[in-house]
Each structure stands twice: as structure tokens, then as C-alpha cells.
Give the backbone structure.
Amino acid sequence: MKRSTGIVLVIFLALVGLLFYLNQKESPAEEQDATPVPPTEFLFDASLGAPVSIDIKSEAGEQVAIVRNEDGVWVLKQPIETEANQGSAEAAASQLSSLRIESRLKVASDAAGLVQPSFILTVEMGDGTVNTVRIGDLTPTGIGYYVQVNGSDETIIVDKTGLDALLVLVESPPYIDETGTSTP
């Protein structure tokens, strides 16, 4: 056997050995146990049915209320009584089912802005259950709002983006203009 063939054979065997060695060793990510992720919790239980009325009152006294009538059509009850923009009202109703609870805390009501809440959200669900949500201050990190549900002392942080999408209804109720389109 030639010397160059022998060197190539030794290098080849070394590479095969290295390949077997590397395949036997577990990666560090696999060695560690995965940290369990808690299940996502939502503010409203989907099993209670779809919302049939949504009422939002601000601390300043502004109010918007929409109700699904017996024909299944959303009607604006506050600030004036008229037919609601169906797309905006349905978007608000579906937003309720996706309000994510970020965490549950032991925070005093006055420290969370819940003694005089910024908003009070009242939602009637399809099964007749009525939920009242007191919405307080924005958290210091800005990820959510402090809330309390149905007079409970437990303070919950709810996703800011989801609540903001609902609270905008106070400033921009889902009106329909005379042409049948939504107002800007």
C-alpha cells in the first residue's frame, strides 16, 4: 500500500470515528428539562357563550353600550340609540373572548387605580351571566391594565393591546353614517 493511500485511510477512519462520537453526545438543550409553560388564561370563559351586550363607562362619564337584538343585529344603545356598525361591534365582541390574563397579583386596589377605576366594562354573555370588570391603571411595565372582576379583591393584569381595542369604542362608537358605511 502506498504511503498516500495509508494517510487518506487514516484520515477517513478518524473522520468516521469523530462522526460516531458527535452523534452519541446529547445536545445541552436536550439534557435540560423543559420549563413548563402555564396554559393561557382568558378573562372571559368561552363556555358562557358569545357576548350579547357590552357596556363601557369611562371615569369622565362617557359611555358606549351595544346590544345584540333578537334578530342578532348589534344596536347602539349609548350614547344614542341607533343601529351599530356590525363589523365594529362584532370585532369588539370577538375581542372579549381573546382578552388574555397576563398575571394575578396581590396589589392593593388603591395602588392599582381600582378604587376609582378609569373604566367599568359590563358584559352580558349568551347564557345570561353578567360580568363587571373594573379597569384601573396601566402597569408600570406597560404590558397591561390592572383589573378586578365581579367585585373580587383579586387584582389581575390583562393584556393592554386587547383592552385598548375595546376601550377605543368610548371615543369612537360604532356608528353607521347615512350612506351605510362606518364613520371614521
Notes: Residues 3-24 form the longest helix (22 residues).
